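Hi P.,

Sorry for the delay on this. The queue was packed all week, but I finally got your sequence through. Input first:
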Amino acid sequence: MRRVIPAFLLACAGFVIGTPVDAQTKPADDSVYQAFGQKAGLQALMEDFFDRLKADARTAPFFKDTNRANLVEQLTEQLCQESGGPCVYKGAPMDKVHRDLDIRKQDFNALVEVLQTSMDAKGVPFRAQNAMLARLAPMHRDIITR
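Then the structure:
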């Protein structure tokens, strides 16, 4: 049975990817960063995640013209920062990136499901997965556009 974490966490906390960098606060510790295998682990995860996004019929249309290397790099930096690592995400604000993409809640939830599949495939502990999802959840407000 697939976990029903995405919608619940996202609804409660408010994917990543939302407030301006200077308004974000770094987590108090780096235990989530460590559980994900530090930056190398996060990069491997994001490479797997991108491939799965392209292969999933629900998410593929959103990524058909995406530069793989650039997105993997940006997501790695973002998750590194969000997990308490030493990185600083310098990419565009999520609301600007997603403004014209017509993303619905079901599209966002599909992306989170794909992320969970990648985390499972990479052996990320369930507790660390939940901690990361909780940190990413507030970004849904800037990503869901309809």
